[in-house]
TrEMBL record:
Catalysed conversion reaction: uridine + phosphate = alpha-D-ribose 1-phosphate + uracil
Source organism, top-level taxon: Bacteria
Known EC number: 2.4.2.3
Matches recorded under PANTHER family: FI09636P-RELATED, URIDINE PHOSPHORYLASE
Name of the protein in question: Uridine phosphorylase
TM stretches of this protein: none
Domain Nucleoside phosphorylase per the UniProt entry, residue ranges: 29-264
InterPro entries assigned: Nucleoside_phosphorylase_d, Nucleoside_phosphorylase_sf
Top-tier EC class: transferase
């Protein structure tokens, strides 16, 4: 069935609507970063850059490193942007731009987020690296899709019961990383964690400037939550959306977090750029070796 122009939207140059990319512009391995300025911090390590494109907050560089073709792309902040990025990335490899039909043979991408994050336990140190084994989303993105089969309902129920999650908030969902892709990136330098994806940076993460929060002990409840051997380790704003949509679309995804803040101790890294650069180098070395 041919997709209608209102569903599958292309620009005048036949590029996908928001990302402004053509199918040949992306590599099988895609690194996502939140900050558009971080795209060049990744691609500066490439041996060769063949494509530089950008539109709005979505900037993309594609090139090669150690003979492997890679794409690095900025998503901006939040799972609302992840909805755009993941769906359009999938369209670039799995929809025929000429016929506007879904391809009979589908392609699976490797999608690796390199991002910053804050831990909520004193034993997760500043400037450490954490791979998200699971993510719990406090946004509503995945609830708009037929996604019950990929959600971990027992963990979700235990979390709602533990936190007394209010009914007028979005129902939390739990999704897992891709173990095969994760095995390529793990080492003794990497912690495994259970990441909470928030819908904002201030109130939703328990920060207060001038506004009072609804639950003053939210982060305390998060840090106290346990399900078997799992505990929520860190807070950020994209991972659950990446994991959920990647799994639904048949792609492999892993989120690599550089811990810059410790919310339990009030610390913030005094070398955030240096630590993030080390995680970039680590990830590039692992995926191109």
């Amino acid at each position: 069935m041919q997709l209608s122009p209102s569903e599958f939207i292309l620009n005048a140059d036949n590029s996908i609507y928001h990302l402004n990319l053509l199918p040949e512009d992306i590599a099988p391995t895609v690194i996502t970063v939140g900050d558009p300025d971080r795209v060049s911090e990744v691609s500066k390590h490439f041996d060769h850059i063949e494509i530089k494109k950008g539109k709005r907050e979505f900037h993309t560089h594609t090139g090669t490193l150690n003979g492997k073709r890679l794409t690095v792309m900025s998503t901006g902040i939040g799972t609302d942007n992840i909805d755009i990025v993941l769906n359009e990335l999938d369209a670039l490899v799995n929809i025929d731009f000429s016929t506007k039909k879904i391809k009979s043979k589908l392609t699976a991408l490797d999608i690796i987020r390199i991002g910053t994050s804050g831990s909520i336990h004193p034993d997760i140190p500043i400037d450490s690296f954490l791979m998200s084994e699971y993510a719990i989303g406090f946004d509503s993105l995945l609830q708009f899709y037929d996604s019950s089969h990929i959600q971990h309902h027992e963990i979700q129920k235990a979390f709602v019961d533990h936190t007394q999650w209010y009914n007028h908030k979005s129902t939390p969902y739990v999704v897992a990383y891709d173990k095969v892709l994760g095995s390529k990136l793990i080492s003794d330098e990497i912690l495994l964690g259970f990441t909470a994806t928030n819908v904002g940076f201030y109130g939703p993460q328990g920060r207060k400037l001038r506004l009072e929060t609804q639950d003053n002990d939210l982060n305390g409840k998060l840090s106290a939550f346990r399900f078997n051997n799992l505990k929520i380790t860190n807070l950020e704003m994209e991972t659950s959306g990446i994991y959920g949509l990647a799994k639904l679309l048949g792609h492999r995804a892993v989120s690599m977090n550089c811990i810059l803040a410790n919310r339990s101790t009030g610390e913030f890294s005094n070398k955030p750029a240096e630590s993030t650069e080390k995680l970039i180098q680590y990830t590039l070395q692992k995926i191109t070796q």
